Amino acid sequence: MKKVLFFLCFSCLLFGCKKQEKDAAEIVGKTAKIYYDYLLHDDYAAFVDGSFRPDSIPSSYREQLIDNAKMFIAQQNKEHQGIKEITIRSATIDTLHHTGNAFLMFSYGDKTKEQVIVPMVERGGVWYMR
Fold first, then answer.
1. Could you identify which of 30, 58, 93, 112 might form a hypothetical disulfide with 100, taking C-beta atoms 3.0 to 4.6 angstroms apart as the criterion?
2. φ and ψ at 94, to 5 degrees?
3. What Gene3D superfamilies does this protein's entry cite (predicted)?
């Protein structure tokens, strides 16, 4: 009886940990998609703010990053008729180092697709792009 009880407790613990890891990886993917959705909806400042920086940056540098995001979208519009949709393909997580990777699929207006890897880092319970 003790063996059966021990096995059941161990199984619950094992399966409980797997679900938590899957849920955390799912959060990484959804967070990366949210940041890139900001970019698609011309909210360049929110996209830039989704990048991890250990220290504050000068406002002039932040403006340069926003301009770079605008140029990226302009380039995608010119070369591929814009990014029409972003979907989450998968995500991985390293709970020990508080890092993860989101695998996003960009669907372009010219019907091409591209998989993009977005490295992520967790700080203070919030996931940021690296």
1. 93
2. -120, 100
3. 3.10.450.50
